[in-house]
Amino acid sequence: MSAGAGPASAAAAAIADEIRRILAVATGRPEMLDIPADMPLFGQAVALDSLTGTLLLREIRQRFGVDVAADDLNLDALATLGTLAAFVGERAAADTTGAG
Amino acid sequence: MTMPTVKCVVWDIDNTLLSGVYLESAAQPPAADPQMTAVLKELASRGIVHAIASRNPPAAAAYAAQATGCEFVAAECGWGRKSDAVARIAAELNIAPGTLAFVDDDPYERAEVSFALPPVLVLSPEDMADAVGWPEFSPSVITPEARRRGAMYAQRRRRLAAERSFGGSREEFLRSCGTQVSIAAAEAADVPRLHELSERTSQFNSAGAGLTEEAFRSMICATGPSALQPGPGAAARGVLTVRLRDTFGDDGLVGASVTEQGPGTWTVRLLMMSCRAMGRGVIEGLLAWLARLAAREGAEALQIPCALNDRNVPLRLALAAAGFRAAASQPAGGAGTAGGAGTAGRAVFRLDLGGPLPELPGWVSGPGEP
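Above: the input entities. Below: the structure tokens describing the complete assembly.
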């Protein structure tokens, strides 16, 4: 599945940057623009809660067409910034290629 | 399925709230329409709030509020599409379009909103005299919380503005404005509000359905107000209430839980919270408090059966943030699969209490906690 790590990781990095911007707006904290990919989203630093989480998922659905909550019962994709970017990248790609 | 009650009426100004057109006579704007003013007041007394969507400058909304003597919790003034204005109001108040009504004298505007937002109840000013008697405008109970709803939305606006200009994290903000989340055993006097909450909540309602006053009353009487501790071996049911206040105002009873205290595992049969309390540490505080109590009483796990739908994703976010996980999900039985993934079904979310207990935020108080 993970052929061509170069372009795939570049796409994931671009998605991660977009998610950082969404987080900065949702939380009102510009320092979100600099968080590392392995930063836990529910941890102390980001402290995603039901309000900021809802704003984040709504923006992701609008910008990438990916409904995280519909596809991920436990919202495991929200573990870290990196896992979320990878999840969104995978689903967005699957959609644009017609998903099989 | 019960008829959804209207929570907010979005009003046009020209020839609707006012007996004339605001801009045609800006020097001496037209007076308030006496019939609509009476409707505004009657609906407000039932806990229904009002908002404005108007093709006018913002000053027109301030004038309409002054002329009618009524409070409007949101105002969208501009020359864009009215359906966009209505959608923005729903988003700002954090309520579903299906709980909004829209009143406009212009049939074109009514058609546009009907077409773009089918769940919105669209009416003409002429409809309103009759409509105040309709079930959509007649909440079955009117609690003190409902009567203060307009004022609480105004507090909410001031709080949001303060939060936007606040530099630190949300937690620091909650602390800075003196947030107090108080958990207590439910009493008989709470029953009307508990029933109302169970009917009105959707974003934070684990059961996905309401409970009657009778059901709440029997649970509270069966356990008594002090019976948070289960009898030996018995699956006692505890009904908890959560109240919220801060320096901006008192929101009253905003959340509750119904917990069955079985041996080994405690099961939360109903967890609900008003969406107005979202982002204020309430659901997080209640979940932490329940987990700590269950653990102290020797339970190994706390579980929350949860309806899965596209409305209560905020509840799932709160559960995920608190460390709950669903072991397995059961798709909606027998109803076909047309709804698609995530739009129907149930899952049991579970928190193992073997590890370190969740910390109780400093703003939460309840029996058994300092």
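Note for the figure: Chain B has two domains: 8-137, 168-365.
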